[in-house]
Design goal:
Chain lengths: 963, 279
């Protein structure tokens, strides 16, 4: 087939633009508009009543829009119906008469403001650990229990069960010695599991045995420093057991009426369930030993609800007094804590027994210093201060339960009682950690006094100051006392010898200082911390605390100029000498900066400090750094770079970027950002000069361009380079740096052959062709306006690009090359126009340079011919069976291009388009809808002036009906 | 697995008072129709006495078991010989619990030497080829609550080295002084035993304080009476060195099957005693 000459259609862009622009129509208020908020019409409720009408009629009858979801339902939507009734209930409840009842209901449930046990658990387990060997006393499950015949009479069954219980008390025990803490915890976890298994396999007696065995472990206080953790582990099992029993009895209450409501009364419980429940209580009442009997009964306290209304309120006081029988004060106080915990869960309104528990504890307080305890401590080599801290979790918990929604008077009374016991530090500490922060804060001067009066021996004082500090961080003390409090407290804190004790206190008090005072005080505090932590490199053991200090400071000081002007802040940062921690801290600071800094800054203090911080982050990057980590660091540094602005001082800005480039050369995203920033700077300059560069600004802009030109090659990502070259070239062009722009474009063209087949995107390998296609389209639209270099040939860049495209190894089964050629055709057609569709101010494009010179046009036509030949060649190669679909698509694509850009009055072109049309339909792969639409378009176009030849064309294009 | 027989007593706790009507259903489940020679239900109540080896010697104890005393015995024919349809058949029944003549319906009690037990037995007689089916089921008899309110009779007690019985070397004992009180020595069996105990002082560390419930059973037999005390239940009320001068609660729930109200008849008697031990 001979080469087809190309005849571009001449375009009048202005008139085309005018004709296809939509008419602007004012939207009148009240008109339908899809984005207008939905208005609810009053007619809605009426419509719901009209049952007969279908949803469609109801929606069409209303002028305004109806929510399609609600209109689907015939009648009121069930959810909103519920909501409506619930509304009426709540409104009714708001009346005074029912108010009280609701308050009462509230007191029956613990609110979300009550810190639950689960949050304490982990803390205790982490805090109370031991390296000593532990032992565990367990019965080895005897096979006897399984021998009971199912048919035996009740009495026999009961007897064997009781015998089993006896068994486990007397023989068949085994003591496991020399367990490490880990082993011990595993054992207990095993027990928990075997409890569940036993229960699931209906071996209730075995389950009970396990629970008894476990709670028995709580009477053992060897390895006393582990006791709190042991308590946590074992009470978990007890909780499991309590839940199992409760659920089982609850499931027995299920009958044909369905399940019981949450607030059922004992009357609605059936006899079988009651009987089972009673049996549990009887069984437990016959457990010989005190501690297991107490714990197991407490565990199933909730089941009292099945028996009688008053059950729980009678049980709690009895169990409370029962604890008096426990001689060891530590065991007793944890038993009390458990009772309070269960009590709060089951019946939080019964405050009395909580108080009773605490008062009983105070009565037995002297036990702690009794001979029995002291002897035990000597044997175990545990010192008093450590021993006393073992009490804290239990007392804290009891006091927290008491203090929950308690009136002020009660708290005052509690405090008085503690005072009577000689300002005991242990109690004081628990009061401070359990009571409301506001309550403590209001009396902080009193507390400081009391702390001072405490005797040195016993409970460590720094813990007291720590607790007080925690309260003050949450609530504000009276205005007038604030400075005095800080002075008094810090006086004591600064005297602490042990760096760990010191830093734990300081960590807490820094927050108070930040909250209420200025930079000056914080600076003093920081200085003090540095002074304490520097000797012997004590900071090495205190990184978490130091880190938290930094975090607290940056949460309170959002003004970074103030923050960095504190002399001690940077020296403080220098204490982080371990790199990983240092980088963490730097990240925190940068995050805070990006979050809180409102305006761009040029403050030298901030810049210096943050450059230092960023440099630290950057320098941590090495070959082993993870991609994510790099991305994170880069985005933080980018955030900082974006926040730096020297206003009109562009030179300074550029030199900052130069400095940043030298500092952050290892992070590619930062370099990309810098190139963008510099480009932006160049455009900013252009804007300031309103497009007319003076000699000075022209030189500056060239400097910017040069910056980009030497920065881009150092990037490894090929697409980042391509896009940046194009981008910078555009910027250079806009700033009338023609030769520089040429250089950028040349660089881009010569880079294309290096584009790999596959590129890595978010960790996945993907073919690069779609990206390349996108890039080329973008590139072409820029090339339209790039004027030819006087010394190079006509359309030097386009030719270069075509060569590159020709030589690039394309995927075998892709048509991207042809698509690109078609796009080249569009570009060339646009280039033949008398006036181009767009221009850059002050840059003469080829339309002005050549002025429609015939030689120039011939050159273009030659190129077109070559391109068309390529396209047609490719179409021919697609003649195989399996590529027919692609052929059809491409043919249509090319047809459309000719339609849009070619001059169809030319016969050969006209014939070519008809051929293409037929080719597209030839094998039945064409989409009929598209074809019909295309034909309609042609017919519509033919009505336009000067387009009458389209009518004729339309007649020549047959539509193939699908058979 | 052909036919299954089950007795379901109406009350879940199976407790009936003397004079009440025991009611329930006999449930027969079977896949096929059952041919039988009649179903009968028997209610039996008996007192078993066992002689203690301690008081009369091993052989006498073995041989001279006292014949069980029958308190109540009645049988009813529930279904005449015939055929029962397949599936589940429920046959309701009722027995009045009445004393017969001078035979008192004692409370159910499971002791060591005295046993009072009431059972329901359902028998299904079948032809030679199939075994007879039997199902027994225990039910519990309680005496009606005593008329008139029991006067509580509180008692105070003190324990010192001097008050202890059966101690050999009184001098070697550490000094201690414990006092306390029981709210009542006459306890209602369904209510727990309550009281308080205070360790006023004790030289040595207290290890444990336990409460022992002891029963004394007396059996009449040929050679006179055999009286035996055995422990029913031992409950620890204090563990470890308890706080001095702080009252510790005494609280014990009576195990219902193994205790009964103090009872005295011509042939046997059961009393309850409480001891307090302290190591």
């Amino acid at each position: 087939m001979a080469a087809f000459p190309w005849h571009p259609r001449s375009r009048n862009y202005t008139s085309e633009f005018e004709s296809c622009r939509l008419e602007a129509v004012l939207v009148e208020f009240g008109d339908y508009h899809p984005l207008k908020p939905i208005t609810i019409t009053e007619s809605k409720t009426k419509k719901m009543v009209r049952k007969g009408s279908t949803s469609s009629t109801s929606s069409s009858s209303s002028s305004s829009m109806i929510d399609p979801l609600s209109s689907v339902l015939d009648g009121t939507d069930p959810l909103s119906l519920f909501a409506a009734t619930a509304d009426s209930v709540t409104t009714a409840a708001n009346t005074d008469s029912t108010r009280k009842k609701r308050d009462k209901d509230d007191s029956l449930v613990v609110g979300s403001d009550f810190e639950p046990w689960s949050s304490k658990r982990g803390e205790i387990l982490a805090r109370y650990t031991t390296t000593e060997k532990l032992s565990i006393n367990l019965y080895m499950s005897s096979e006897k229990g399984k021998a009971t015949t199912p048919g035996s009479a009740v009495s026999e069954k009961v007897r064997t069960r009781l015998e089993e219980l006896d068994d486990l008390e007397e023989g068949s025990q085994k003591e496991l010695l020399n367990l490490t803490q880990q082993d011990y915890m595993h054992r207990i976890e095993d027990l928990n599991q075997s409890l569940k298994d036993a229960w699931a396999s209906d071996q209730k007696v075995k389950a009970l045995k396990i629970v008894i065995q476990c709670s028995k472990l709580l009477s053992d206080t060897t390895v006393i420093q582990f006791y709190p953790s042991k308590f946590v582990l074992i009470t978990d099992i007890l909780d499991t057991f309590g839940k199992l029993v409760y659920e089982r009895i609850l499931s027995m209450c299920l009958d044909n009426r369905g399940s019981l409501p949450d607030n059922f009364t004992p009357e609605s419980v059936n006899d079988t369930a009651k009987e089972t429940c009673l049996n549990w209580f009887f069984k437990i009442a016959s457990i010989r030993e005190l501690i297991p009997r107490f714990y197991v009964e407490a565990a199933i306290l909730k089941c009292n609800k099945f028996l009688s209304k008053m059950g729980i309120s009678e049980c709690l006081p009895r169990l409370t007094t029962m604890i008096r029988g426990i001689g060891d004060p530590l065991v007793a106080v944890y038993a009390r804590a458990y009772l309070c915990r269960v009590g709060m869960e089951v019946a939080p309104h019964l405050k009395e027994s909580l108080n009773k528990n605490f008062f009983d504890f105070l009565l037995t307080f002297k036990q702690m210093h009794g001979d029995t305890v002291q002897n035990q401590l000597v044997v175990q080599c545990v010192e008093i201060p450590l021993y006393l801290t073992l009490y804290s979790p239990a007392i804290d918990w009891i006091l927290q339960c008491i203090a929950y929604r308690a009136p002020e008077i009660l708290l005052t009374e509690m405090m008085e009682r503690c005072k009577k016991l000689g300002n005991n530090a242990l109690l004081l500490n628990s009061v401070m950690s359990a009571f409301r922060a506001e309550f403590i804060a209001a009396r902080s001067m009193d507390f400081i006094g009391m702390i001072k009066e405490c005797d040195e021996s016993g409970f460590p004082k720094h813990l007291l100051f720590r607790s007080l500090g925690l309260n003050l961080a949450m609530a504000d003390p009276p205005e007038c006392d604030r400075l005095q409090i800080l002075n008094e407290a810090w006086k004591v804190i600064t005297k602490l010898k042990n760096p760990q004790d010191y830093i734990n206190c300081a960590d807490v008090w820094v927050e108070y200082t930040c909250r209420h005072f200025t930079k000056r005080e914080v600076n003093t505090v920081l200085a003090d911390v540095i002074k304490h932590m520097t000797p012997d490199r004590a900071f090495e053991d205190a990184y978490p605390q130091l880190q938290s200090i930094i975090q607290k400071i940056i949460t309170y000081f959002h003004d970074f100029s103030v923050l960095f002007s504190a002399e001690k802040f940077l020296p403080f940062l220098d204490m982080f000498q371990k790199e990983s921690v240092r980088v963490e801290v730097c990240k925190c600071i940068m995050e805070a900066f990006i979050k809180h800094q409102q305006d761009a800054t040029k403050d030298p203090v901030i810049l210096n400090a943050l450059l230092h911080v960023c440099k630290t982050m950057h320098d941590s990057v090495n070959a082993l750094t993870l991609e994510d980590e790099k991305r994170m660091l880069a985005s933080l540094i980018n955030g900082f770079i974006k926040m730096v602005s020297f206003g009109r001082d562009f030179e300074q800005q550029l030199s900052f970027y130069v400095e940043a480039r030298s500092m952050f050369c290892n992070l590619e995203p930062v370099l990309v950002q810098l190139v963008h920033s510099v480009n932006q700077l160049a455009m900013e300059t252009r804007k300031v000069m309103k497009g007319n560069h003076s000699r000075k600004t022209a030189a500056f802009v060239r400097a910017c361009v040069a910056f980009c030109f030497i920065t881009i090659p150092s990037l490894t990502s090929i697409f980042a380079r391509l896009n940046l070259y194009l981008n910078s070239g555009q910027v250079a062009l806009a700033n009338q740096c023609l030769s520089q722009a040429d250089a950028f474009f040349k660089a881009a063209v010569s880079l294309v052959p290096e584009v790999p087949k596959m590129i890595n995107i978010d960790g996945k390998m993907r073919p690069s062709e779609p990206f390349l296609l996108e890039f080329f389209c973008n590139f072409f639209s820029t090339l339209l306006i790039v004027p030819d270099h006087p010394e190079q040939g006509v359309l030097f860049l386009v030719r270069g690009l075509l060569n590159v495209i020709q030589d690039y190894t394309w995927e075998d089964n892709s048509d991207d090359k042809v698509r690109i050629y078609t796009n080249v055709l569009h570009l060339l057609s646009a280039m033949t126009q008398e006036t181009y569709i767009y221009h850059i101010d002050k840059v003469d494009s080829n339309d002005t340079l050549y002025g429609g010179d015939s030689k120039f046009l011939t050159e273009i036509n030659k190129l077109c011919e070559a391109v068309i030949a390529q396209i047609l060649d490719h179409l021919k190669t697609l003649g195989q069976e399996e590529t027919l679909k692609r052929q059809s698509q491409l043919a249509l694509y090319f047809f459309n291009s000719i339609l849009a850009h070619g001059d169809l009055r030319n016969n050969r072109l006209n014939q070519l388009s008809v051929n293409l049309w037929n080719l597209a339909q030839k094998h039945g792969f064409a989409d009929t809808k598209t074809m019909v639409k295309t034909l309609e378009y042609i017919k519509r176009q033919s009505k336009q002036p000067k387009m009458s030849h389209f009518t004729e064309l339309a007649l020549r294009l047959p539509l193939q009906s699908r058979t | 697995m052909g036919t299954a027989l089950d007795i379901k007593i109406k009350r879940a706790n199976k407790v009936y008072l003397c004079g009440e009507v025991l009611s329930g259903v006999v449930v027969i489940t079977s896949k096929d129709a059952v041919q039988h020679q009649g179903v009968s239900l028997t209610m039996e109540g008996s007192v078993n006495l066992q002689l203690s080896a301690k008081s009369v010697g091993v052989f006498e104890a073995f041989y001279n078991s006292v014949k069980p005393i029958q308190v109540i015995n009645s049988t009813i024919e529930m279904v005449k010989p015939g055929k029962l349809p397949s599936g589940k058949t429920e046959i309701p029944f009722e027995f009045p619990l009445h004393m017969k003549g001078n035979k008192v319906l004692y409370e159910t009690y499971h002791g060591v030497f005295v046993n009072i037990q009431y059972t329901l037995r359902c028998d299904m007689r079948r032809s030679l080829l199939a075994k007879d089916l039997t199902k027994t089921c225990e039910f519990i008899v309680h005496s009606p609550p005593q008329k008139g309110k029991l006067m509580p009779s509180p008692v105070d007690f003190t324990i010192t080295p001097e008050t202890l019985q059966n101690v050999k070397e009184r001098a070697s004992l550490p000094k201690f002084f414990i006092k306390g009180h029981l709210n009542s020595t006459n306890c209602i069996i369904t209510q727990p035993l309550t009281g308080e105990l205070v360790v006023e002082n004790a030289e040595a560390a207290v290890k444990s304080i336990e409460l022992q419930l002891v029963r004394v059973e007396t059996c009449g037999c040929a050679e006179g009476y055999a009286r035996d005390a055995t422990e029913i239940q031992n409950i620890q009320i204090a563990e470890g060195d308890v706080c001095r001068s702080l009252s510790i609660p005494i609280y014990m729930v009576f195990p219902r099957l193994f205790t009964c109200p103090t009872l005295e008849t011509t042939n046997f008697k059961v009393e309850l005693l409480l001891t307090d031990c302290h190591m």
